[in-house]
Amino acid sequence: MFWVLGYRSLSRLGPDRTWVVVGMRSLVFLFVVLALAETQSDKKTDRLTVIYLLDQSDSIPRAHRFAMRQYVMEEVRRHRNDVRGDRAGVIVFGRSAAVEIPPFDDDIYYLDNLESFVNFRSDATNLEGALKLAQAAFSDDTAKRVVLISDGNETVGSSLTMAQTMSSKGIAFDVVPIELNYENEIELEKLSLPSDVRKGEPFEAKIILSNYSRNGPVGGNLRVKRIANGQEELVSDEAITLDQGKNVLKIRNTIDRVGSYTYRAEFTPDNRKEDTLTKNNEATAFTHIRGKGRVLLIENWETIGEFDFLVSRLRRMNLEVDLMPSNQLFSNLAELQSYDTVVLANVPRTSGDDAAGATSFTDDQISTLVRNTQQMGCGLLMIGGPQSFGAGGWTNTELEKAMPVDFKIKNKKTEAVGALAMIMHACELPQGNYWEKITAREALRALGPMDYCGVLEFNYNINSNTMTRWLWGGNFGLARVGENKKQMLSLINRMVPGDMPDFSPSMTMGFQSLSQVKASMKHMIIISDGDPSPPSATLLQQYKGAGIKISTVAIGTHTQDDSRTLKTIANVTGGNYYYVNNAQKLPLIFQREARRVTRSLIKEIPAGATPVVTSSHEILQGIDSLPPFHGFVMTTVKENPLVEVSMISPVPGEEQNSTLLASWTYGLGRAAVITTDGGYRWTKDWASDEGKYDQLFGQAVRWTMRPVAEEGNYLVHSSYQNGKVVATVTALDQDENYVNSLDMSSTIITPDLQSSPFEMRQVAPGRYVGEYPAEQSGNYFINIIPEPGNAQSPQLRSGVSVPFSAEYRVQQTNRSYLENIRNNVPEGGEAGELIEGDLAEDGFASLLKIDTFRHNLTQAISSKDIWPLLLVLAATTFLGDVLVRRVHVELSSLGRLFSRKEKEGSSTYMEDLQSTKTAATQEKGSRYTIDPDAEASLSSAGKEERVPPSGRRGSKRSTKEEHPKIAPEKKEESYAERLMRAKREAFKDKDNER
């Protein structure tokens, strides 16, 4: 079809040119199609790429790690075939792998200091990761070989499957075993404790130490400590002597207090030279002392004793209650495992009146608290007060996600709105502007969606002749946080505060906007080095009269006068003054100051109001009504069907913001909120009615507590074996018969607080076992629910402490593992070599006998793209198409022009051309004239051409003309003379006719 249509449209060019154009267009089409298909040309190549995998983990002695680098440099220099274009590359690996030198066609000259050691973790051996990276680093146009230099003790991953996959793709393996020789080594292999002990019951701590020294017994000191709630207690400290081989020591101990306890054992040899590795001289384990239900109540350290009445009532209800001040918080998840519920009693996120004493819940502590409920089943109860919920700075934290209510108000009808203005002045503290951005972001995150926020920045603009400006909101500068939060954070990140000369312009702009905004709480924060000119007394009085307090933060001040200005601003307006010499304290200060704005969430009812019970709940069992209360913290009920709101306040009237009691199930645990306090300020009338008070708070605490297996029908044991956490559960019924076919639900939390499923499978009657690879050192916590569908099913808790990475265990070279990798035969090639020798510094000559660049592999196919050439051909052919269509060339003329064949009986073409040239030259050199007889003939011819007077020409004109005879003129006559003579004769004839 392409040819037919092309031929018809070009038929006017003639058949020859038409077929030429159609052919050219066909070629153009073909070249373009082949180019779009990315056509390549393939050819076989003998080029070889060798990638060396260097094990740089801690199990390899330092001298061997250095020697293997020297071996690689010498091996490449000696055996790489430069003519063939062989390539060499280097990958180093420990816990992860990194390309130190990508494959290239040159020798390796420098491997002494590895660039990959930046952020390099050497506490594990990940052969699988190194092989995956090597496979990705190979190019397709060469044969491929991996040279693995390692002790073969893989602690992370599984490389055998990966090696099989690579060999199927033609990759061969050579291995160089590293011989491990620990002449002097002590290893504290294990500290073993019973996982569950009854209070006051003696138990044994078993410690296993191994002496690998060849010099006989080794003396040293063994110290055992017990840790609970961040406090250390020395259990044992004695001098011991370790015989060669394993040594088992037992220490008896008794604990009279319920809780979770961590034990740490440390061994220190008398002679440091008798121990090569020090990271395997310590082990930890923990145990749980059982008792009645335990409660941890965290209170604000600034108001110690506020909840003493509540604590005393809970203890009367046979609950063990521990108090923890907010400035001495837990440090890890293990410390929370001894508690069945945690109570946050009117505790703010940040406490402290000055910069030096500011304390705060860290993000890790908040995350630990939440995970303890979500994944370990511990209860979580939050009791209100003026420093709790959103008023305590908990808005937008992970804790808010675990509660059945949100800590911010989303209802525009409720006037719980605050306004915060911040003045940012460039500080001369190192990275001052950076910390200003951090603090502004923290303050913004503490605000609710209905609150207003604005930032005043001094930044002189020549074009607009302005110095102080609002970051957003135009001239008004204050905007609601909710829908603008993302844009506000972005603008804060881009702000560049300048050196402000005077406080007055910025403070005037701030006052104008704050005085106009409709907010129940207005506040300003100034961060500065204090050197701008102070504001006028009139301006400060205006702030004071409007009830707008200003808190000042002095950072990087030069003189006492600078600090005095900031102190005056704070004192006159009723704000706080902070002097900061540690920039890391700034976020804590701004979190605390942002709470002033969020105090608009506090709803105080001086006249009192009676709570309204909206639904029945276990917490309200036996309670029909409660005495009046005088205040609470407003929240917003989460839109979730699991949330149960059981009691509300009749004020302010918006039900979603009037919650007094709400609860829900969060993960494996339960969480509840009581938004009023515990009898200290707003609920004194409740405290006077001890019966209902005990019912409400006692039942709230007990409802949140995790279920306890009081029957004792489940026995749990956990341990660390062969690099895995192993948990075993024995299930019995009340008659001591085995319980089978349980579909247990279990979760494990790793030392970095990551949650993973933990599969329990039945291996014998009533016996269930679960395993999890322990790739990190630290505490692993296991939570098991034997019968997930049964509301009465207990939660079984256990855990294992992995003292150190398996990398630091004393091991021998795993030659069989390395040989399994080597024995993988690449497709079309031969199996690799086991390269043995002494890889000590300057002692690897025997290793160089094996050529790692030998070519006994299948030739690789080298592919080269030719589509660029096809595009050039298509363009050239297209130009030829245009030339043929636009320029007409006679093919016959071209034939005569290039023909060299002589015709028979005639001269050659060159001879004819030469004779023609000679005749023309002679003719040009001669002179010509007209004979007199010829002149008469010419005159008569002219007469015959004239028209007769009648106007008619002759009917027939003679076509035969006699040419005049030309003869040389005897007398030379010029051309002009001849022309004039002919003209005169013509006029003469004309006159004669007349």
Per-chain topology:
Layout: H1 2-9, H2 15-36, E1 40-45, E2 48-55, H3 62-79, E3 87-93, E4 97-104, H4 127-137, E5 143-150, H5 159-167, E6 171-177, E7 186-192, E8 196-198, E9 203-211, E10 218-228, E11 231-242, E12 245-253, E13 259-269, E14 282-290, E15 294-299, H6 308-316, E16 320-325, E17 341-345, E18 350-351, E19 359-360, H7 363-374, E20 379-383, H8 398-402, E21 405-406, E22 418-424, H9 432-445, E23 452-461, E24 466-470, E25 479-480, H10 485-494, H11 503-516, E26 521-528, H12 537-545, E27 549-555, H13 560-573, E28 577-580, H14 586-598, E29 602-609, E30 612-613, E31 629-633, E32 636-637, E33 644-648, E34 659-666, E35 669-674, H15 684-688, H16 690-704, E36 714-721, E37 724-731, E38 745-749, E39 755-757, E40 760-764, E41 767-773, E42 778-785, E43 796-802, H17 815-822, E44 860-865, H18 867-886, H19 891-898, H20 909-925, E45 929-930, H21 932-945, E46 966-967, H22 975-993
Parallel strand pairs: 2-3, 2-5, 5-6, 8-14, 15-16, 15-17, 17-20, 20-35, 22-23, 22-26, 26-27, 27-28
Antiparallel strand pairs: 1-44, 3-4, 7-9, 9-12, 10-11, 10-13, 13-14, 18-19, 21-32, 23-24, 23-25, 29-31, 30-33, 33-34, 34-35, 36-37, 37-41, 38-39, 38-42, 40-41, 42-43, 45-46
Helix pairs in contact: 1-2, 2-18, 4-5, 9-10, 9-14
